[in-house]
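User: Before I run my own analysis I want an independent prediction to cross-check against. Here's the chain; please return only the structure tokens and, at the end, one sentence I can use as a sanity check.
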Amino acid sequence: MGRAIRNTAQTAKGRIKEALGRTTQNRQTQREGRTDRSMGSLKQAAAKARKAFKR
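Assistant: Structure tokens:
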């Protein structure tokens, strides 16, 4: 359960960072946010796949 929360938090952090970068017109921050969001989403998808094959 801890990993799921951590991955969701990373996705949320990425969304916030990306929005901040968009607001301040800072492309690097925006890119970092997009990366964090993508990594969190990929980790969540991997966890779902592991759970599906575990059954």
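Sanity check: The mean pLDDT is 92.
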